[in-house]
Design a protein that fits this description.
This protein has two helices and five strands; from the N terminus they run E-E-H-E-E-H-E. It is α+β, with helices and mostly antiparallel strands and about 110 residues long. GO terms for molecular function: cysteine-type peptidase activity.
C-alpha cells in the first residue's frame, strides 16, 4: 500500500509544511503498476513544477518507494502562494487516484507538532 502523509502548520493555518509518500501499491508487477506510476508521476511532477514555476528547489529525499520533503517558508509571499497552490493540486490528484484505488493508496492529514 502507498501511504501519503500531508502535514499542515495548524488547524487554523492550513499551510502545508511537509509531505511524505511511502510504499508500493502492489497492484501489478513492478514496471507495470499503474497506481505506483500515477502516484510517482503526480508527486515527482509536483516537486519539479515547484522548482520550475515557483523557483524553489525543494529539499526532497527520494529513493525506491519513498519521497519526502519539508517545505521551506519563503520571504516572498507570492512564492509561498505558488508553492501551496501546487501542493494543493498534488493532493487533489492523489485524492483522485485514491478515490478509484483506495485499497492501494491512503492519504493521511496531520497537524505539525
Amino acid at each position: 500500500m502507498i501511504t501519503v502523509t500531508i502535514v499542515r502548520q495548524s488547524a487554523d493555518d492550513k499551510q502545508i509544511v511537509s509531505f511524505a509518500i511511502e510504499g508500493h501499491a502492489k497492484f501489478a508487477n513492478p514496471g507495470k503498476d499503474i497506481i505506483c506510476a500515477g502516484v510517482s508521476a503526480v508527486s515527482v511532477g509536483t516537486v519539479n513544477a515547484i522548482e520550475q514555476l515557483a523557483g524553489l528547489a525543494l529539499p526532497a529525499s527520494m529513493k525506491n518507494g519513498w519521497l519526502q520533503s519539508d517545505i521551506p517558508l519563503q520571504s516572498d509571499p507570492s512564492v509561498n502562494e505558488r508553492v501551496q497552490l501546487l501542493l494543493e493540486s498534488m493532493i487533489v490528484m492523489l485524492n483522485t487516484i485514491a478515490a478509484s484505488y483506495g485499497k492501494y493508496v491512503v492519504i493521511r492529514h496531520k497537524i505539525f507538532e
